[in-house]
Amino acid sequence: MKKFTKEWLLNAFIRAIRTFAQTALGFITIGMAFSEIDWMMVLSVSGVSMIYSILTSMVTGLPESTYDGKLLVDDHGETTKWLLQVDTPIDDVTAMKSIRLKVDPDAVLSAKQDYPDET
Fold first, then answer.
1. Are 27 and 40 in contact (CB under 8 A)?
2. Fewer beta carbons within 10 Å, N or C terminal of the chain?
3. pTM for the whole thing?
């Protein structure tokens, strides 16, 4: 997965916004009056956590923007066929505890396509 693609930037931004909100929630105590909250402190620390989140994503990557393959759905035949396209060697896939798939809505498949035997 190439870093800094449009998908990566969107996922990094979403993660940073969530981090901002979670940090802000940590500063707001239930039962406090609105006027008792130090809003500058909440915004300042939450903003720093947002920057930290983006920098962490740059260093470690984003699991939500990395896929091991695609799930292709062919519903043009007599029955619906689910196909799996894996981008890594099958031996590596079988050693994984889980894989991440992305549904490809632009997949153009045909009912005449050869499918593996379903035994």
1. no
2. C
3. 0.55
